[in-house]
Each structure stands twice: as C-alpha cells, then as structure tokens.
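hi!! sorry for the late reply, been swamped w classes. u asked for the two structures so here they r. pasted raw, havent cleaned anything up. first the sequence of the first protein and right below it the tokens
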Amino acid sequence: MAMVKCKECEKEISSSASKCPHCGKVISNSRYVIIGVIIAVIIIGAILIGKVVLQKAGEMSDEQLIRDQMNENAHMFANIVNPQFSVDNKTQTCINNLKQIDAAKELWYAANWRTAKLKSSGDSVNIAAMCKYLNGNKMPVCPEGGTYVVDVIGKKPTCSIPTHRLSD
C-alpha cells in the first residue's frame, strides 16, 4: 500500500483509506464521482424523456412533474456521488432535504424573477410560495431536529446542525 498525504491535515495515510485517521476527513475517490455523475446524467435524461412523454399524454401536471423530478434527483445524486456512504442515514436525509429546498428555491426564483423584480442574488425568498415546489407542498424536517434556513437568492440553504451541510 502506498502512502499519500491527507489534503486536510497533510499527514501521511494509506492510499486505500476512506477516511483520514488523524483528522477524520473523508477521502473521496474522484474516479467513482466521475462515473457516478455520468450515470446520473444518463438516468436523469431517461427520466426526463419519460416524464415529458407522460406529460404530453396529459397524465401528469407541470407541478407534479417538477416535484417528482426534484425528489428523484436529490436522492439519486446523494447515493451516486458518495459511493463510500461516509455519512449516516439521518445526515444524508438532511442533506437530501437541503438539496430539495435549494432546487425548490431555484424553481421559485425562475418562475417569479420577472414579476417580483428580483435580482440574481441577495433577494429574500417567499417561503410559502416556494413550498409548492416541495414534495407535499411543505418544508421538509431535519431528522435530527435541526432548523432549516432557506436564506436569500444566491446562497445555499443550511441546517442548524453543523455536520448537515451542502458541499460548495
């Protein structure tokens, strides 16, 4: 086994380690991430094509299409991009919730930027109106009791639990 330096603490660790034994930093294998992203793009494309066909046939409303797509995408990316499953289920669920909130915020902005005269960043979000883009038309709940902050346009939503964060 070859030894490599941890990018976080700069100490030597095994190249096969999934986590630094010194600082706890999760070591990702970029090859898996790239493969995961390619697979995700293919799957998302297939889902979108299938849903467009259903929508054209009149079997699904625009709002249902958007909600289903956001829900599937958030869960799919969470499971594909992190092949080592380095976080527990509750943390991953919270991160998935944050991804759904972020997607709903972007959809709300896209639908309202002209009528509300919004800028590209810094404006507050109408949370009640944004919730129509979330599954069940309501804000998700952190499984560990954290509080979600939607924040302004241009900033990612956050959870009050420090380990529940969206990556940049």
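now the second protein. again sequence first, tokens right under
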Amino acid sequence: MESVDLNQILRLLDSENIAQVVSIKHDQARESYRLQRTTVNSYEEFHEEIIAYHQHHHQCIYGAPMPPEMASGVVRQIIDRQFSRQGGYESAFVEAKTGIMGGLRNILDRICDVLKHDHEEKYITHIFHTYVGPLNWEAQVSLMRQYMEKFRAIAPPELLEKSPEQLARDYEYVIRTHVQSIRPITSVFRRYF
C-alpha cells in the first residue's frame, strides 16, 4: 500500500463527492419510479408494490436484478426499522392504505433514504479500508500525524494531548467526526464560491 494522503481521503469523503458518486443515483432511482396512485387497496398490493420498487431501485443503482424474495426480505427490514415507533410493517401498510402522511409515496421515500444512507456508509468504509486499512498501523499513524499537522489550530484540546500513535486506532472516528463537523461550514462557503 502506498503512503496515505489525508487530503485525498478528505476529498473523497467530501459531501459533494459522496453526492456525485452515491447519493444522486439513489435520488434518480426514486424519481424514476412512477406510482399510479399513493394508496393501495390490499395488503397484497402493498407487498407487491414495495417489492417492485426495491427491485427497480436495485436495478437502477447496481445494474442487476434482485430476486423478489431478497427484495421482500430487505424492504421488510427497512420498513420495520423506519416504522418501529408507529408499529412496524403493519403501520406502514395502514399508511399506504389510507394515504395519511403521504401514503405509499412517503414509504418509498423512506425506503430510498435508508438505501441511500446505507450506501453512503458503505462507500465511506470502503474509502477507509482502501486507503488506510484496519490493520495498517503505519498508515493509521501517518494519517493522524498529517491530521494533527494540518488541523492543530482547530483541534480540540483532548486531541492535542494525544500523539499520532495514540490516535491511530481511532483514525476512522477522528476523520469521520472532522468531516461531519465541517460539512455545514463547507455548505455555506459553497454557496458563495
């Protein structure tokens, strides 16, 4: 593995880059799925619609079909998580049947949001494992050394008390936290420059 480059990793983890590489594709997949209506008449129709949507979304993102039993299992887990406070899958069905809270459109939007977020997280993990690696101690120390040199002026005191070697095992947390903390500032500056 070549020497690790903090600037390259920060560019790859920049929100605009993640949007271009991952997020926009999910938004386009959602946008391209056309609903005939925002409500369903039966549980069977609901079940078929969410499977069809997930298969469509998967095909758009990965260019490969997803078997219905896989789509059913994945989308069921997503809906159970997203609607856990309202009663899970059954609550989502009631929403799709009655049209409350946006009906089926809202459900598909929420499925898309989860798929997009999961893909973004996998992309970020991929960047860390590709450019640093969980077992590459030297790369982790180098990355933290570069980070401390570059951001010493804005680093919190707790971070400044530690050496790059002490931070090395937490490199992913340090970089993720940095990227998340500067995202709002970067967003403001992008409007003006």
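hope this helps!! also noticed smth abt the second:
The chain has two domains: 23-118, 132-192.
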